[in-house]
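For homework, think about our next protein:
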Amino acid sequence: MHDIVKDSLQEALDCLREFMGKENNLQAIDTGATLISKAIQGSNKVICCGNGGSLCDASHFAEELTGRFRSDRIPLPAIAINDAAHITCVGNDYSFLEIYSRYIDAMGKKGDILLAISTSGDSENIIRACKSAKKKGMIVIGLTCDSDNSLRTMSDVSICAPKTNYSDRIQEIHIKVIHIMIQLIEQKLSVNEPCSYPL
């Protein structure tokens, strides 16, 4: 049992070191945070989506913008597409493949950000969401893995965890990226200072 615990932690550490060793990953995180900050300053919002654990990550990102991260501050506009009524309605009456794209068709607007999360980068409902976002004039930030995948290709900014045999290692990188991006967004917007942009 001890070996399993130690090996798992070592594998996670190796994955993180590999991710950190690529300068383009670090730059992409900062670029993504800058784009989100500018969108919020322009009275736009972030819409987030993913499947399974990636939807949990999307929800986590959104709630820490609308709620709080490490300290009190003004709320920031973010939505995770996790409404059960919407998902089951569209999934039942149309297709599971349209659960995110249809929401974006309804709620997205030019200048908004889509944060699309997929460990494989090839989930069809996520790709359709990206296509809808592009048609709306939204900016797409993709959290995915380091492979030749559709989400990476479609994203204006792609942040790619090392490709591994299991999705949990990719998700562990994604949640670290999410927390760092929130920290950067707060810094770029100076949200603990008097508000200088419209909400």
The two ends are 51 Å apart (CA to CA). The mean pLDDT is 95. Helices lie at 2-20, 23-41, 53-66, 84-93, 101-107, 124-136, 150-154, 167-189. DSSP finds eight helices and five strands in the chain.
